[in-house]
Structures are given as structure tokens and as C-alpha cells.
Write a structure and sequence with these properties.
There is one protein chain. The strands form three sheets. A five-stranded antiparallel β-sheet has the order 2-1-12-9-8, with no helix packed on it. The protein has one domain. It contains two helices and twelve strands, in the order E-E-E-H-H-E-E-E-E-E-E-E-E-E.
Length: about 180
């Protein structure tokens, strides 16, 4: 029997950005890289797995990864990051996508994939350079949430967004032993 108390458990995240023609759906480019899991994200994972009364009665619900947010800054991510460097917004409304059950795909053992798409009609006129996965926080509405935690963050090459382009973000998080 394995010695479960001495296993080395690793957490890894990978972000893939797929740029496609909005009309034909033809893939124009694909970019992929390992992302940074933040210290706050690791703490949220611990709270999700082992809730404690001192964290509050809703800690498991508040610690669920619930949204993907997008930004315009390409400052390299650090484990100490607590937010995007420059969250994208249009007319004061942040560019965020709520991750429903259908957008959280359970894959191979220990893998969850989150999928968010900036459609032809969403987020146009900006150049995206960063994305982050965020927990639910105390409100279940990504546009207005409070006390959410950035689980992971990554920067990527400039992705100008127009109505002729869709940007699909696939974020895999894997726990391995």
C-alpha cells in the first residue's frame, strides 16, 4: 500500500488560447503555455478540500473556480499575484465569463478543463494579453462578485479582438502524484 502521507502532490495548470475566424470557425492560431498557480489559489484549494468553521460556513462554495477574467497587461505572472495586472473592461463593464457546469470538463484522472469563449459579439476593440481563473467569492455573479480569489494567471501574445474573431480559452488544471 502506498504511503499517502509522504506522496509528493503536484498542481499544474496549462492555458491554451485558440484564435479562430468567427464566420468560418477556421483556426487562425493556437498558443499554449504552463500557467502560474497563485498562493491564494493554493489556499482556496485547501479551503475547498478541508473546510473549517473558522473560514466561514460557505467556504467551500466561495472557493469554487467560477469565472475566467481577461486583461490587457503582459506583466509576467507571479505566485504572489492577487488580481489581473489590468482587467479589461468596455464601458465600465469588466470582461468576465462565468464558468457553468458545461464549461468545467472533468478529464483524465486529476484533470479539470475550463473553457471560455469571447464570441464575435463580446469584448471587441481591445487587445487581450492576460487571463485569470477566479473563485466564486461571496456572490455568485462574476460581474459583481466580491471576495473572489485569483486561482491562476497567465499572459500570452497580443490577441486583438474584433467581431471577425473568436478567442477560445482552454485552461487545464491537473493534480498529479
Amino acid at each position: 500500500m502506498p504511503d499517502f502521507f509522504n506522496l509528493n502532490i503536484n498542481l499544474r495548470g496549462d492555458l491554451q488560447v485558440i484564435r479562430r475566424d468567427a464566420l468560418t470557425k477556421k483556426i487562425l492560431s493556437v498558443w499554449e503555455k504552463k500557467n502560474v498557480i497563485t498562493y491564494s489559489g493554493m489556499e482556496a484549494l485547501v479551503k475547498l478540500m478541508a473546510p473549517n468553521a473558522s473560514f466561514g460556513t460557505n467556504v467551500q462554495r466561495e472557493s469554487q473556480i467560477r469565472s475566467m477574467r481577461f486583461g490587457t497587461n503582459n506583466t509576467q505572472p507571479q505566485r504572489t499575484d492577487t488580481n489581473l495586472a489590468s482587467e479589461a473592461a468596455l464601458a465600465g463593464v469588466p470582461i468576465r465569463i462565468e464558468l457553468s457546469d458545461a464549461q468545467r470538463i472533468i478529464g483524465a484522472a486529476g484533470t479539470v478543463e475550463y473553457v471560455a469563449t469571447l464570441s464575435a459579439a463580446m469584448g471587441n476593440g481591445l487587445v487581450y494579453r492576460e487571463a485569470g481563473l477566479f473563485t466564486r467569492g461571496t456572490e455568485d455573479a462574476p460581474a459583481t462578485t466580491s471576495n473572489s480569489v485569483m486561482f491562476s494567471r497567465q499572459v500570452f501574445p497580443d490577441q486583438p479582438k474584433t467581431s471577425s474573431v473568436e478567442l477560445e480559452f482552454r485552461w487545464r488544471t491537473t493534480i498529479t502524484v
